[in-house]
Amino acid sequence: MRNIILSILGVLFIIATVFISKSLIDNKNKPKPIAAKVIKTVFTDTVNNTTIPIVIPANGNLTAKQRVELYSEVQGIFRNGSYLFKPGQNYRKGQTLIRVDAAEYYASVQSSKSNLYNSIAAIMPDLRLDFPDVFQKWQTYLSSFDLNKTTPKLPEITSDKENYFITGRGIITNYYNVKNLEQRLSKYTISAPFNGILTEALVTEGSLIRNGQKLGEFINPSVYEMQVAISKSFANILKVGETVSLTNLDKTETYTGKVSRVNGSIDANTQTVTAFIEVENSNLKEGMYLEANLNAKSIENAIEIDRNLLTDNQEIFVIKDSLLDVMPAKPIHFSDTKVVLKDVPNGTVILKRPVPGAYAGMLVQPFVENNTNNNSAE
Q1: Residue ranges of the Multidrug resistance protein MdtA-like barrel-sandwich hybrid domain (predicted)?
Q2: pTM to 2 decimals?
Q3: Residue 378 pLDDT exceeds 50
Q4: For tag attachment on the chain, is the N or C end more exposed, with fewer CB atoms within 10 Å?
């Protein structure tokens, strides 16, 4: 009985082994599924080499081209004028900005002028007797002498004898002393050198002004300049008179300026050259921050693409027979978002937008825009 049971179990084991072996053989010979080819749709562009202008971005603050810092060269009380000395006050050329009380100093000037007049009057009898040929011109000078006006220039001395006589009486010395006092007297009044506006006032009417004290600032609000720093590589290219496009930070206003000056030296620390852009507009104010685009030069037979289309190996992706390939390119100029390239043949089909995971040999197809217009039935 035991032998019969072992025989039956042996037969069942053999049968099971046969079935398992057959199943393994069938699974091994089963064909593997074929992976479907993935074709990436890409945006393309066809190369057409042209002349690319190199635009240099720069920025800076506006400052008035005509600016005067007002300082006092005399001491005295600040007297009221026809206009309040306050920021924002407009003045025309020649109008009085500041008037310092000069009553005491004026009296000393008048005293010196009177002494000069008396000195000349004292020599007139001697001139009539000893120098009758020059008497008349000195008499005319004395007649035109007005203590309330600026001292006129002394008559021209025509001979050595006349020169010795006039100099010996101390008249020339007295004359230049008076002119010196008159020159200083003029410093008690500061007039507007041009039509402009007061932007800073550091004193008020009635306050004591001291010698050397800063009084304020006066500018011409019609013409402004913006100082920008340009890379030294463009130092020999940037030209005076170049037109410059300027925009504000909000990109809502556009102004047109021109390069008025270019510094002849390069900053040793930053290796940049300073250029000054002149701009005129009634909407501009001193201190405004503007962005400028300067046309430095033009590159012939070149193209401009996005910087992210240029690989680290200075190559770009091109499309040949529906496959991606790489082509070496020569970058000429980099901006914040663009790069100018040379040595890319005309007619070459390149990527217009970057493709994630792109590699040479990748299967792609150009994106074709559907321009068919669907007309709705009425």
Answers
A1: 67-215
A2: 0.66
A3: no
A4: C
